[in-house]
Design a protein that fits this description.
The chain is mainly α and about 55 residues long. The chain is built from two helices and no strands. The longest helix is centred in the first third of the chain and has 28 residues.
Length: about 55
Amino acid sequence: MEFESLWAFKETWGLIFLFLLLVAAFVYAVLPGNKDKFDEAANMPLREDDDNG
């Protein structure tokens, strides 16, 4: 297999793989079951915990 054919394989299938990965991340982020987890993570910097003694 020559360099040009490897490059063409990377360009086509790499692009498809990254696009599917992006779609999967978006679907994961908008699933209703994850709303509580993301809301808790978003409010974490604003929380004042008295765990430091």
